[in-house]
Fold this sequence. Notes:
The protein has helices at about 5-20, 25-35, 35-50, 65-90, 95-105, 110-120, and strands at about 55, 60-65. By secondary structure, the chain is mostly helical. Strand 1 and strand 2 (about 60-65) form a beta hairpin. The chain is elongated, with a radius of gyration of 15 Å.
Amino acid sequence: MKIYESGENYLETILLLKKKSGYVRAVDVANELNFSKPSVSRALGILKNAGYVEIEPNGNILLTPLGEEKAGEIYERHRLIARFLVMTLGVTEDIASADACRIEHFLSSESFSKIREYVEKNG
């Protein structure tokens, strides 16, 4: 099943919240993304049906191996694109991170590969 930009944002958010606090609940995702709890619940249901997350009886959200892999890929794209914008264009880190969040979903594999090569070589 193809995952779209919003689903990728949810996965990345779940990954980062888990790294920060060790656990993730729907309310944490809603607060982080500034979305309503019903919207988050609906999105989590879609991600669960697609095999990206599991939700424990206590409400804890877990990334499945598939979800962990996808979230890691998205986060790597985000970090490298932001770093590239800072390094090459002098964009501030906050702006670079916000722009990377939008770019990461649409950038081709070829362009991302070139950005990765540049950042690894120069930075």
